[in-house]
Amino acid sequence: MGQHHEQGRAGWGIMTSLLEGAKKLVTRGTDTGARLEGLGAATEAARGRLDDELVGRAATVVERGTSRLRLSAHHTVVGIAGATGSGKSSTFNALTGLELSAVGVRRPTTSWATACVWGTEGAGELLEWLGIPPRHQTTRDSMLDTRRESNALEGVVLLDLPDHDSTEVAHHLEVDRLVALADMFVWVLDPQKYADAAIHDRYLAPMRTHADVMVVVLNHIDTVPEDRRDAMVDDVRRLLAADGIPDVPVIPISARHGIGIDQLKGEIEKRVADKRMTVGRIEADVRAAAGELRAAAGDAPTRTLSDERVEALESALAEGAGVPAIVEAVERSTRWRAGRATGWPLVSWVGRLRPDPLKKLEIDLGADSKALRGQGVSVPQATAVQRAKIDAEVRSLADDVSTGLGAPFADSVRRASTARLSEVGDRLDDALRTVDLDAERLPVWAGAVRVLQWLLVLAALVGGAWSVAVMLSGGLGDLPRVGGVALPLVLLGGGVLLGVFLALVCRGLVAATARSRAAAADRRLREAVSEVASELVVAPVQAELTAYTSLRTGLDRALA
């Protein structure tokens, strides 16, 4: 897929330049340039996601359309196509008034088309783009023409294409090439084989989106009895309706006898006069290509990952990585450390017999470090059930956001969501090890309480020792008193009682501090998890959804 994107960026750079030039040349009152831009954007978004051949056809339409808009806007390329024996070349000669194309047994074997041009200004570059060699080009007002006619066909480039059903591969390849380039088509049918699948299945039906730039001619009408002509024309119309182009004009003619030639010429003149055929052909190509892309991509509304869906994924990853266990350990460790510091020292030493909850998780904060570092230590290992939950959550996310998308884009979303799933476990472990849990540092107030507790213990010991010494000496009556109580007893009782009272009061502060530290650790750990989830799952999935949005937006512009 990456290779497709690289090729796409290079091709899109050229295409964008063409589009910018083309926009300046689009006929006033049209937005063909905008439609081409929309299709180009959709093509770029589809690259590597939809079928390569389909995307390639759309890219060709954009490139061909922008190239055509850069060329002469005063000329309309009209291609005359038909099967062997249909009288296609006779029709060409009748329209030009010149014997330019050989007919019947004199039909040349060359695979080149013949061109007749009305008006030469700007036609040279157009003919070069069409790939018509100079020896197959004729201008209508050249010395070959001795007749004086109106200039109603001024700006027409009339092409006599090779037989589309020729046994020569080069012939029908040339037809296919020029059919893709012509602005308007005149399809010549023979009364004896107008239902031939070769033209209906290969050209007429596939080009149902191009009805506005087509005319169908039923030639050799002179060979059909007059009372059957209308029925035959109606039958041709029935076949065209079956091809999906019921509104295409059907003109019965006889190129040999001149029947209907004026009507055909008038139809061409009328269409050429409004200078819409070139734009109409390009827009028909754009509609066809955009329709194919839309059918392949699906017509589901654009979407994005909701915050709730991302939060659910991050919660699953956090649980799988053991974040709740770490947070609980941080809270218990803070209670253990702060509890030892603020408890009554003469009994708080019992807490030393219990290990630090963080160390039970095999998390070594280090003597001087506040962060989870990785040498020789590890975060809690996720169980198979937790890993399975992560996998299930990732796949569920992809399924939720891809529901209704066309199969290619749905598959693209799923591939993006699971492409780096195997990295998630290790990346989560690495990310969590860099998180500052702030679990080792003793709160300032707890340190102050510890100092005060030891001062109270010291006071109690002094008071106790003093009291014992006085009792042994029998001199209690001479001691200083506080509220009528001897000072040694005040120091002894006050030190013990105040120490116990202070330890009890600090229990609430210890619990609040532990919860605060745990909440802060939980937030930091989940931020680390969020970064991993974003890089490995969310961003890739969102990129696919953004591409789908770009494709839909581009197609909406192309089909506007």
Most strands sheet: 7 strands, mixed
Shape: rod-shaped
Q: Total number of helical segments?
A: 19
- pLDDT averaged residue by residue: 81
N to C succession of SSEs? HHHEHEHEEHEHEHEHHHHHHHHHHEEH
Q: Cα-atom Rg, whole angstroms?
A: 44 Å
Contiguous low-pLDDT stretches (5 residues minimum) are 1-29, 104-109, 363-378
Q: Helix content range of the residues, please?
A: 55-70%
- Oligomeric state of the chains present here: single chain
| Widest β-sheet, arrangement of strands | 3-2-4-1-5-6-7
Structural write-up:
With 560 residues, this protein is α/β, with parallel strands linked by helices. 59% of the residues lie in helices and 7% in strands. The chain is built from 19 helices and nine strands. It has helices spanning 2-25, 32-46, 52-70, 88-96, 123-130, 169-179, 197-204, 226-242, 261-273, 277-297, 307-320, 323-342, 345-348, 357-360, 384-402, 407-418, 424-433, 444-473, 487-558, and strands spanning 76-82, 114-117, 137-139, 156-160, 184-189, 214-218, 250-252, 481-482, 485-486. The protein has a seven-stranded mixed β-sheet, sandwiched between helices. Strands 8-9 form a two-stranded antiparallel ribbon. Strand 2, helix 5 (123-130) and strand 3 form a beta-alpha-beta unit. Helix 10 (277-297) packs across helix 19. The longest helix has 72 residues, at 487-558. The model is unreliable at 1-29, 104-109 and 363-378 (pLDDT under 50).
